[in-house]
Amino acid sequence: xxxxxxxxxxVLALIFIIFLTVDSFSAVCVFxxxxxxxxxxxxxxxxxxxxxxxxxxxxxxxxxxxxxxxxDADETELTFYEIYKGKELIGMIHxxxxxGEYGTIEVVWAFTLEGKIIDFVIQRQREKKGDFLASKEFRxxxxxxxxxxxFVKDKTKDKDKTKEIxxxxxxxxxxxxxxxxxxAYGAKKTLAFYKFLFGKE
Amino acid sequence: xxxxxxxxxxxxxxxxxxxxxxxxxxxxxxxxxxxxxDSRFMFESSDKKITGDNFILHGIEINFKYIFQGExxxxxxxxxxxxxxxDFDFFSREFNYHYGDKYFVLKGPKGKINFKIGKFVVxxxxxxxxxxxxxxxxxxxxxxxxxxxxxxLEINGYxxxxxxxxxxxxxxxxxxxxxxxxxxxxxxxxxxxxxxxYGISALSGGAPEGNYMLGMMHPLEKxxxxxxxxxxxxxxxxxxxxxxxxxxxxAGRDEDKRVWGFYWGMDYEIFSKLLFSLKYSFWDPDKDNSxxxxxxxxxxxxxxNRFVTARIAYEKGWRKDxxxxxxxxxxFSAQLNLNF
Lengths: 201, 340
Description:
The complex is a heterodimer of chains A (about 200) and B (about 350).
Chain A: H1 3-20, H2 34-41, E1 47-54, H3 57-67, E2 77-85, E3 88-99, E4 104-111, E5 117-124, H4 130-133, H5 136-139, H6 177-197
Antiparallel strand pairs in A: 1-2, 2-3, 3-4, 4-5
Helix pairs in contact in A: 3-6
Chain B: H1 2-21, E1 28-29, E2 31-44, E3 55-70, E4 73-84, H2 93-98, E5 102-106, E6 114-121, H3 141-144, E7 149-159, E8 162-169, E9 184-193, E10 196-208, E11 226-240, E12 243-254, E13 257-271, E14 274-284, E15 292-303, E16 308-320, E17 326-339
Antiparallel strand pairs in B: 2-3, 2-17, 3-4, 4-5, 5-6, 6-7, 7-8, 8-9, 9-10, 10-11, 11-12, 12-13, 13-14, 14-15, 15-16, 16-17
């Protein structure tokens, strides 16, 4: 390798190391079909407004304390969608991704301005029990729940706060516990983002 | 000189990165700035030794997205991409296959009919949803269409479970407009059936002749000729457990030559950070002749975090031209991709 290439390799290696110090999972989720899913979740809606929120250090700390879990490395900027009927703001949407058994489960959450879940759609998943996770029977367990609902267990033997689904509140899909847990924790996280980023504390 | 350029670009990227990720306040905004840098080491089977030419900065892009909003919601979006490569000419095919998005989208009622104007990825086949521009293993557009991005107009939207795209573009591919060019018309209708995504496309008009060279296009490519093309295509994508399979079947005519081909690709998630990819494509540039291009590739994709992805891939191509001359080429690529 020539001297020039050695220098280039060195610079690339250095940048590589700098950027490597960040955690890996990506929870930030793109809203893939807004023009389709907004009107499924809010049939009376006429339009939506994208609101991009940057998370400052203080808010990040508040959210992490509330969840008892660190935020993912890329959760520095999140997009919410304000849902309008004419000029009237009628609800909110936020897409969020969590890891299931076979990869990322992307869920689009619809909730009221008070932060109560209306419904959700799964825009991408590859779970064995994916159809059951998307079924109304599973979804309706989330309806009306808010940020204070115990979606996940408060404690286990080892930890004070967990990501594990609280089966007293949400009955997981049979043979789809990991996917159910991902969705339950995603609900809590989404509503926590809304609470702290939109001043609903 | 090239090294200085690359170092300067890397320095600017780091500066930009530090500005863009600095946490300040929980503010609401209606714009986004993102970027990517794609650096590669490429070694062809015909290369005798490693030189500076084996290292390339394939491209750097900074994307600016601005959402126009009124009292009752979003009504338009502007996307501008600033892109540069010290290794490819701004008007070259390779550069314009991957970079240069600049468009304005005017939203219609409930997103059922939207208007797009500018330079964008043409909506033929799986290009409509498969974002491959930073990947090593590419689908079949170089052979089947001869372009990926073009300047023009597009109407797209949803109708019940179907999505549709109609585009009318200049057919030049290179970021220039030539009104003497025969324009290119594309229509695609697609549907999501559960997790299965599929669509039918049709294309007619002037477009660059297919790229029949094996390996990546070199900076000193020959002059591009334009031909009248007709195409129909079927495309699909299906995720199942750790795998995602996608395919495309295309047939049509280049002037009076009958052409056809297919592409098949698969990604398999070995674990959350590691992806294994395969691809195979076949293109017949003249069905009445015995010419062909076969291409196969395999690669690994390791996502260290949201900022760094490393990829390696080996591709092999076999080509026979209409004079019966055969050629084959192997290409090893290692890629370091930074996203910010």
